[in-house]
Amino acid sequence: MVVLDTNMMSVLEWRDTPKANTILDRLDRYPAKEIATTIITYEEQVRGWLSFIHQHQDTLVKQIHGYRMLNRQLDNYRWIHVLDFDEIAAIEFQSLKKQHRRFPTMDLKIAAIVKTKSATLVSENLRHFTPIAGLTVENWL
Questions:
Q1: Pairing of strands 35-38, 136-138
Q2: Would you call 40 exposed, middle or buried from its count of C-beta atoms within 10 A (0-12, 13-18, 19+)?
Q3: Among the residues of the chain, which ranges form H helices?
Q4: Domain boundaries 2-138, CATH class
Q5: Angle between helical axes of 39-55 and 105-116 (0-180°, round to 10)
Q6: Residue of 41, 5, 1 lying closest to 132 (CA atoms)
Q7: Tens of pLDDT along 7-25?
Q8: Rounded CA gap, 27 and 33, in Å?
Q9: Are 109 and 101 within 8 A, CB to CB?
Q10: 76: helix, coil or strand?
Q11: Residue 129: its pLDDT value, please?
Q12: Are 43 and 75 in contact (CB under 8 A)?
């Protein structure tokens, strides 16, 4: 199973770009049931667009754009399996947090989910993921 990190899901929001095409070409090698992302990635992206909308409460044009992008993001998640942050991942996260105190919490939660599924994480953010023992990470870009 391959699990797409937040940056990969962001790239896929822009389907007609060279980066998106590179990711989609690689995904074609996997059955749909072997492609996933995490609920943490979904949270990060939703928070980003909700923050954008909130920051532009006085500008309807920017709010319209923000809501369109939020809807586009929702469409982007309709085709992919979203892995939960469950009890097993939470235990793994606590262990990773002790080992990597300076790493961003959300990255450690993503790593915990991926490790508990014995999957491969696809991310451009190798700096935060390659030091984690037992985590397989690939950068397709």
A1: unpaired
A2: buried
A3: 6-12, 18-27, 39-55, 60-77, 87-99, 105-116, 126-129
A4: alpha beta
A5: 150
A6: 5
A7: 999 999 888 899 999 999 9
A8: 11
A9: no
A10: helix
A11: 95
A12: no
